[in-house]
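[recover] target loaded
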């Protein structure tokens, strides 16, 4: 397990999937905002590519996020689009509704940076998020990410086009927490 100040990032367990699906993806609005693909209902027990783990897929590393104090499942974190030639990747996260607003997102981003830069030896991490996702923007900027641009009207969400903000962080600009 990778540990931050408040959270741990661990392998996805089978019993995490129904909880994450119910609280993050079955909610049409949240699911539409979190995933670039159109929302669609999934039958109970169906394999959901957003949540299941394919250990052979090298371009994506999904984690379940747990509280260090108690081990409660609070969300997902992902390093995706991993490019081993250019040594870059994207990061993303999703927190269960009860876990939002408690500073977990900033800690999750910090742990993903540690994983990307130290464990994987990447040169650049990138985040794309909706321009009104203030929590993600704060979590990214608190970890040193720089706003590099706005992708105007690039996301179709619930009947309208929304802007996305592109943020980047280079390994040389990252200020790691020495406790990790």
């Amino acid at each position: 397990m990778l540990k931050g100040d408040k959270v741990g990032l661990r392998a996805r367990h089978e019993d995490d999937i129904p909880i994450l699906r119910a609280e993050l993806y079955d909610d049409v609005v949240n699911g539409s905002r979190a995933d670039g693909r159109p929302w669609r209902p999934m039958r109970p027990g169906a394999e959901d590519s957003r949540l299941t783990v394919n250990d052979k897929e090298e371009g994506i590393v999904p984690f379940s996020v747990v509280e260090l104090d108690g081990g409660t499942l609070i969300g997902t974190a992902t390093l995706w689009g991993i490019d081993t030639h250019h040594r870059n990747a994207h990061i993303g996260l999703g927190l269960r509704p009860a876990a939002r607003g408690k500073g977990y997102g900033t800690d999750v981003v910090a742990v993903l940076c540690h994983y990307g830069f130290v464990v994987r030896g990447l040169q650049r991490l990138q985040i794309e998020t909706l321009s009104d996702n203030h929590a993600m923007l704060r979590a990214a900027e608190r970890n040193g990410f720089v706003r590099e641009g706005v992708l105007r009207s690039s996301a179709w969400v619930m009947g309208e086009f929304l802007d996305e903000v592109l943020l980047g962080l280079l390994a040389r600009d990252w200020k790691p927490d020495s406790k990790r």
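[recover] notes: Helices lie at 16-25, 28-34, 104-119, 134-142.
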